[in-house]
Amino acid sequence: MSSPTLPKCPFPDVRRVVTGHTPTGKSTVVADTIQPPTFWSPDSVNPKFDLYYTGSAPASIDSEITQGKWVDEITDHPEILSADGSTFRAFEFAPGSFSPLHRTVSLDYGIVAKGSVVLELEDGERVTLNEGDTVIQRGTMHCWRNETAEWARMYFVGLGAKPVNVGGKELEEEWQKAAKN
User: Which stretches make up the Cupin type-2 domain (predicted)?
Assistant: First the structure.
């Protein structure tokens, strides 16, 4: 997927350090990389950084021993979120940008690392989150807005969850067109 021309982001690259074990069981670093950005869509100006993915819980964390090499599940999954495992990502929000209105079938823990973002729910309810604030997103329709003139960065851990059931109807993953300003 091609990336759009971005306004210059002032944040440092997202570095990922992953630990593991040697064949004798000693601790070691299996990866120390700068993660390349990807985008939800070709017209998005907000990069995301896939940091870790597990396809199941409890997670298998010994592939370097059982398979003779570290297996990085983040490179080999088509899903946005792991239905039965976990996903760890960083998102950057350009000044004045916003995400599509969406719902994922997941329990997401978010932390604002830099800047300020607005969480907007489908009924228009809005909550401004600032540096250090956290959000626990429980499968609701929402969008993210950066209403400032500065970049913002958030980190999320997403865990597979059971769909919310309302009156016998399960609320599924849903992505709508980009929200309006």
Answer: 91-157
The pLDDT tens digits of the residues spanning 69-124 come to 999 998 877 777 888 999 999 999 999 999 999 999 999 999 999 999 999 999 99
CB contact burial 92-103 (16+ within 10 A = b; e otherwise)? bbbeebbbebbb
Q: How far is CA 116 from CA 22, 103, 111, 129, in A?
A: 41, 21, 11, 6
The helix/strand/coil state of 75 is: helix
Q: Which domains does the chain have, with CATH numbers?
A: 15-178 (2.60.120.10)
pLDDT given for residue 156 in this prediction: 97
**Tens digits of per-residue pLDDT, 17-39?**
999 999 999 999 999 999 999 88
Distance CA 76, CA 72 (A): 8
In this structure, which amino acid lies at residue 131? Answer: E
- The strand pair at 106-114 and 100-103 is best described as unpaired
Q: Counting Cβ atoms within 10 Å, is residue 80 exposed (0-12), middle (13-18) or buried (19+)?
A: middle
Task: Please state, rounded to an integer, the average pLDDT across all residues of the chain.
Answer: 90
d(CA 65, CA 67): 6
